[in-house]
Specification:
Number of strands: 0
Radius of gyration: 20 Å
Order of helices and strands: HHHHHHH
Largest sheet: none
Length: about 130
Amino acid sequence: MSDTTPQLPSPSPAPSPETHVIDYRAAEQLLAARDPRGAVKLLDSVIAAHPENTAARLLRARAFFAAAQLRPAALEFELVLEREPDNAFAHFALARTHERSGRPEQARKHFRLAAALDPRPEYLAAARFEE
């Protein structure tokens, strides 16, 4: 007598740390290929599993910015800066986000912080210290 009970597919295993690294790298590629929404989608699961991962949050903030989702971008950049207040790039990117949102005073503050932390020419030019 044979067993004719249909076999249910086994549940997918929980994502492993390796899966999250793969998703992170794939999100970088999607962002580079101008698919920021696809990048955000991949990063959501990475951040859900590793909410403390600042690199993933910074990448998601960049993806939000590229997708013109300025409020979520600002929130992510601010979270990165809470954890890494000396992150010049995060200050610069938050400033660009504020600039696109029509908030010039907040933008100027973060442009100047970025330039003070890292005197790259683009940070110095954006800071407009001579004004």
